[in-house]
Amino acid sequence: MIEFNFQKEFTFIDQDKLSDWISTTIVSEEHKEGDLNYIFCTDDYLLELNIKHLKHNTLTDIITFDYSLSKLISGDIFISIDRVLENASTYNTSFEDELHRVMIHGILHLCGYKDKEEHDKVLMRNKEDNYLSLRTF
Questions:
Q1: 69: domain CATH number?
Q2: Which residues contact 65 (CB under 8 A, 6 or more apart)?
């Protein structure tokens, strides 16, 4: 089950269509959907989590806490709306496209993809691009 939670208010598209797209991505990656919580928050909120849990004193757009068991993916995905807005401007893309990219990025992490090494980053970006192209909304 996919839930959307808001620490920071912002305009959001049709949650049902977004949930369907995420669910389809999970199945495409040959995983099963468990409990997924998206928490949309501010830079400050996510920075506190980054310092507390990961010992990183840097801003980030996403932190994913993985509670998956084998192919059943579950987790909490925290996304900074402030970072998404800034990144959309930096990368000359729409807020919606950048938000969806970050959202699917979290799912891909839960499916086992990494992004520390350059070849992993390329694979992750290609996967993101593919799933973004499959949106029907």
A1: 3.40.390.30
A2: 53, 75, 76, 77, 78
